[in-house]
Inverse folding.
């Protein structure tokens, strides 16, 4: 009974109703895919690096003016000076760092005869201070001894050599062998061709932000090399609360030791994290803006068109009121009408969302849309419709029976 | 009435009608403005990212690829058919020596320390490109001072350097620095030329991390850089151990790190060069270096940009989503226009009764829609500026250089707004045209 006048009213406004339903469908399709992308990108930008208290660790990007001899000796002098600073907890030198900078990856093999069975992992070169400086948590085995550390002069140095031991992440250990511990196992690292033994396992150390959510993203190996090259990273941990002072002191101390250097960049790991995930956060933010625009435009579209329908049907509303329809009944009429239109819209919208997702998966390389997102979208769009229709529907319910009859 | 006067009559009718229902008119104009603002912000960025970096020659410049890694059964399926993007030093040297193209240049980027001649200035880091003289002629690079180096500098491993205009500004205050000397990695080099402003975008000849904002600061002879053992600052990929130790080991290795460009004038030359590459790969197989059938490729600039997926996925996604916003705005405007046109059925009926024919009513509806589009488009242009400022702040630095509107973007925005409004007005105008004169007068 209640639906008959609604359907007959809708039949007279087929095109207008279709336009609203289509807007709702499109908005829903974009909304749930956008929410999904926002959620994924935000989660990605918060991925743990394994580093304890990123804000206390800073990276000094150091380049030597000349590529002269004894770079390793200069580094040891620098590190001694840095570690002696009262604001500094510990320091090391590295070829890469976990939140930006270059990517150096190699394969680690348990069985050198099966080169394809390797685990691809990020190569970190750090001395025995690496673990403490980054604040990594050792879960098995031991840290490097000072005697384990070997100087490595550039990329092509040490190819085919041996190392007393390496430390790997738990993720890399699990990929190397699903059953049993790999602690103490011999491995070959290719293409470097270095043979060594796994002596320690750390909880977590991110490979590179570029890896995204790929399996490679937590695979890292720490090799006890002192990386001596034209360009190096000093990794420094400040004592709690002294990061700012430590950065200023470190810079002037390094220039005191030698001016034959260019400090091209100096930033904390939390700043590096912001830079590394700027694209992800930016995409998420722009998607949020787009969603907000869509919701507002759709809402105003509903308000505008329903207001027109109210104006158009003033006479009919007056007659219904005169025939005994309550104000609530008029309100319900417009709200049910909107529910019907929005209902058709969300059905079409869910189908569109799934089709759009197939395309999104291919272009942004994400996984399939979980069911919860279309559900959120459906609820959001039905609510939006009800809210948008409220004001015109209230105006309709305010039409007085008498005045309507007079105007007729 | 003549066409002109008729049009201005419709315009005045449209203006009157727009003023009649300010709320509905503002909603429509805003819907179109917002739709244009969102879609054109992203389309402006998309178009900038999609630009041709070297339009006059993009079909004559090629990247050769040679499969020196062989089949990769362990690789993910989508990567299995890809060829190594760079060349080994060995292969790059072979192509340079074959000298079969009009121009050819091997190249790689490296970072260096630069000590300015003025002792008061501190040393700074420079992004250098090691390459051959053909780089400058092949890419039509403009010079402000001096010239590129010549064959003799390439052959003589000369310590000469070409600076970009910006780097010359930084080092020498923009003066003609040809003949001056500076220290690179603490060794003396002589300035032989200074480039004029030159910023190909995307940086087609070295695609990687900074495709849009990346730029070189100085150029030096490849032969010299190799002598000085300058390592690449870009990718260095190896497929197997046993490179051997030291710099010689790197040069002899099967690792890829050299980029290579060449210029070929026509299709015959391209075909000849393909044959040469195939023969070269076959020869390497006979020599026992490759154990697989030759696989080679020769890609021109547009092909190379597509092959490297230069268009960022984020930009494509945002552009398509923003056009969905435009579609919603179009539907929105269509609904509102329908409401507006139908609400004045009475006056249309009067005009029909006074002799206006259906095409006249239809035309008037479209003129009004077009006017809405024009106003909406102008509002949209304002919103695009806001959108670009926001995108500049939010997008990664490499993409933020793309957030600038050109004159063509302005025209596209306004035209798109008018087209959108006309599309939205099509059905409402058609419905208005159906109004019967007699019926409406009776109803009054």
């Amino acid at each position: 009974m209640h639906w008959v006048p609604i359907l007959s009213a809708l039949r007279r406004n087929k095109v207008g109703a279709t336009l609203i339903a289509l807007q709702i469908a499109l908005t829903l399709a974009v909304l749930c895919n956008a929410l999904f992308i926002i959620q994924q990108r935000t989660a990605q930008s918060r991925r743990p690096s394994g580093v304890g208290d990123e804000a206390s660790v800073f990276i000094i990007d150091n380049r030597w003016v000349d590529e002269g001899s004894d770079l390793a000796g200069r580094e040891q002098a620098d590190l001694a000076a840095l570690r002696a600073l009262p604001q500094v907890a510990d320091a090391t030198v590295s070829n890469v760092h976990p939140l930006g900078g270059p990517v150096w990856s190699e394969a680690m093999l348990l069985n050198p005869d099966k080169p394809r069975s390797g685990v691809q992992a990020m190569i970190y070169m750090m001395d025995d201070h690496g673990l403490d400086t980054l604040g990594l948590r050792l879960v098995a085995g031991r840290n490097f001894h000072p005697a384990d550390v070997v100087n490595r002069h550039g990329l092509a140095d040490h190819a085919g050599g041996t190392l007393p031991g390496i430390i790997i992440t738990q993720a890399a250990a699990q990929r190397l062998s699903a059953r049993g511990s790999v602690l103490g196992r011999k491995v070959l690292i290719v293409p470097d061709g270095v043979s060594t033994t796994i002596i320690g396992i750390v909880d977590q150390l991110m490979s590179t932000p570029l890896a995204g959510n790929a399996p490679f993203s937590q695979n890292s190996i720490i090799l006890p090399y002192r990386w001596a090259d034209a360009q190096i990273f000093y990794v420094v941990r400040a004592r709690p609360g002294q990061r700012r002072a430590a950065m200023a002191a470190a810079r002037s101390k390094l220039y005191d030791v030698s001016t034959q250097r260019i400090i091209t960049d100096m930033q904390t790991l939390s700043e590096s994290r912001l830079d590394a995930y700027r694209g992800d956060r930016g995409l998420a933010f722009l998607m949020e803006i787009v969603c907000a625009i869509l919701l507002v435009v759709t809402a105003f579209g509903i308000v505008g068109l329903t207001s027109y329908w109210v104006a158009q049907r003033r006479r009919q509303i007056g007659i219904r009121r005169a025939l005994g329809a309550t104000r609530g009944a008029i309100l319900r009429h417009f709200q049910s009408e909107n529910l019907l239109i929005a209902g058709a819209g969300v059905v079409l919208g869910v189908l569109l969302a799934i089709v759009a997702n197939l395309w999104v998966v291919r272009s942004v390389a994400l996984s399939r849309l979980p069911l919860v997102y279309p559900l959120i979208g459906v609820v959001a769009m039905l609510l939006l419709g009800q809210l948008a229709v409220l004001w015109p529907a209230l105006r309709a319910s305010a039409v007085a029976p008498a005045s309507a009859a007079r105007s007729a | 009435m003549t066409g002109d006067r008729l049009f201005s009559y419709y315009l005045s009718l449209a203006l009157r009608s727009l003023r009649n229902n300010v709320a509905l008119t503002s909603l429509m104009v805003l819907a179109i403005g917002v739709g244009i603002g969102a879609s054109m912000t992203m389309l402006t960025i998309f178009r900038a990212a999609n630009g041709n970096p070297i339009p006059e020659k993009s079909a004559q410049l090629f990247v050769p690829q040679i499969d020196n890694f062989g089949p990769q059964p362990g690789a993910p399926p989508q990567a299995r058919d890809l060829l190594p993007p760079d060349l080994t030093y060995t292969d790059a040297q072979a192509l340079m020596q074959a000298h079969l193209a009009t121009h050819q240049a091997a190249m790689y980027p490296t970072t260096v320390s630069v000590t300015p001649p003025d002792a008061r200035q501190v040393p700074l880091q420079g992004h250098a490109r090691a390459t051959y003289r053909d780089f400058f002629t092949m890419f039509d690079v403009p010079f402000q001072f001096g010239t590129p180096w010549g064959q003799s500098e390439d052959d003589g491993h000369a310590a000469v350097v070409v600076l970009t205009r910006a780097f010359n500004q930084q080092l020498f205050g923009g003066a003609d620095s040809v003949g001056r000397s500076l220290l690179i990695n603490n060794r003396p080099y002589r300035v032989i030329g200074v480039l004029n402003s030159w910023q190909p975008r995307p940086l087609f000849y070295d695609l990687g991390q900074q495709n849009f904002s990346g730029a070189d600061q100085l150029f030096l002879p490849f032969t010299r850089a190799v002598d000085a053992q300058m390592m690449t600052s870009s990718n260095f990929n190896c497929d197997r151990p046993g490179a051997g130790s030291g710099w010689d080991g790197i040069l002899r290795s099967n690792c890829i790190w050299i980029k290579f460009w060449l210029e070929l004038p026509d299709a015959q030359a391209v075909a000849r060069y393909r044959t040469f590459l195939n023969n070269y790969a076959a020869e390497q197989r006979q020599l026992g270096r490759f154990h697989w059938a030759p696989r080679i490729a020769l890609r021109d600039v547009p092909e190379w940009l597509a092959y490297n997926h230069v268009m960022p996925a984020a930009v494509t996604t945002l552009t398509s989503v923003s056009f969905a916003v435009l579609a919603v705005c179009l539907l929105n405007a269509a609904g509102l226009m329908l409401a507006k046109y139908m609400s004045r059925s009475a006056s249309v009926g009067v005009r029909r009764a006074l002799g206006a024919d259906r095409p006249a009513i239809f035309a008037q509806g479209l003129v009004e829609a077009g006017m809405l589009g024009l106003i909406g488009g102008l509002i949209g242009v304002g919103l695009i500026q806001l959108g670009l400022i926001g995108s500049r702040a939010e997008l990664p630095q490499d993409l933020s250089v793309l957030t600038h509107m050109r004159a063509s973007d302005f025209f596209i925005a306004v035209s798109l707004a008018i087209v959108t409004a006309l599309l939205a007005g099509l059905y409402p105008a058609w419905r208005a045209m159906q109004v019967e004169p007699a019926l409406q007068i009776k109803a009054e």
